[in-house]
Amino acid sequence: MPENKNAANAESIAQLGVAEAPESPIACVSIIGQIEGHMVLPETSKATKYEHILPLLVNIEQSEKTKGFLLVLNTVGGDVEAGLAIAEMVAGMRKPSVSLVIGGGHSIGVPLAVCARRSFIVPTATMTLHPVRVSGMVINAPQSVDYLKQMQERVVRFVCAHSGLQKEAFYRMLEAREDMANDVGTILDGEAAVRCGLIDQIGGVGDALDALRAML
Q1: Of residues 107, 119, 162, 163, which has the active-site annotation?
Q2: pLDDT tens for residues 60-75?
Q3: From the CB of residue 31, how many other CB atoms can be counted at a distance below 10 Å?
């Protein structure tokens, strides 16, 4: 590979976590750390910028070389609207897609974990389901409460539409009080996520790639 192509590939990995693999029809997109949305996170935070991921997904959808893609997740969550934007983008793509949760798929990472056509999770991975919340100053008014309820409903509607998890069960897990010492919500390991219908199957990268190749 020419030196300038090596440099371009290194830049792609540094910015997007994506390595160019010209011989493979399968692309890999990673959602790592915190999902950065409208507010810029500190340089000390490991973050995935949604303005990088959205055009990357558009390029994958348009590419004649790329036949499908693997979405790899190890995220603590982040900006709700940014996370939902990425999830909606993946769900609306015609190219086959498979998601794989390898470390964590927490908070707004939950919609991202279920947005692909098939979802996998390794046994040791965890997923945290908790109510939508905002940071910073919040005006204590009915409109603020209604806004959070509407946003929560959008998340619940998306997750239930793209997984086998029932709406009533999802709300019960969001409001559970016995799972976390200083918060409400539920923490699921890999097997529990599959058992409740949130994720399709336990498996690693080999299983995820096998499923994707079968789609192709």
Answers
A1: 107
A2: 999 999 999 999 999 9
A3: 26
Cα(132)–Cα(36) distance, integer angstroms: 16
Residue 10: pLDDT band with limits 50, 70, 90: very low
107 catalytic per annotation = yes
Confidence (pLDDT) at 179: 78
- Would you call 106 a catalytic residue per the annotation? no
Q: Is 137 exposed, middle or buried (0-12, 13-18, 19+ CB in 10 A)?
A: exposed
142 burial type by CB count under 10 A (0-12 exposed, 13-18 middle, 19+ buried)? exposed
**The two structure tokens encoding residue 42:** 């500190």
108's CB contacts (< 8 A; 6+ apart) are: 35, 77, 78, 79, 80, 82, 83, 84, 155
End-to-end C-alpha distance for the chain, whole angstroms:
28
Helices (H), the chain: 3-16, 50-62, 80-91, 109-114, 142-161, 167-174, 190-195, 205-215
What's the maximum distance between 2 C-alpha atoms anywhere in the chain? 60
Could you tell me if 15 and 58 are in contact, meaning their C-beta atoms sit under 8 angstroms apart? no
Q: Which of 119, 130, 162, 163 is catalytic?
A: 130
Give the model's pLDDT for residue 146.
73
- CA 163 – CA 188 distance, rounded (Å): 15
Tokens of 103: 């470390």
Look up residue 174 and give its two tokens.
């969001």
Q: Are 133 and 167 in contact (CB under 8 A)?
A: no
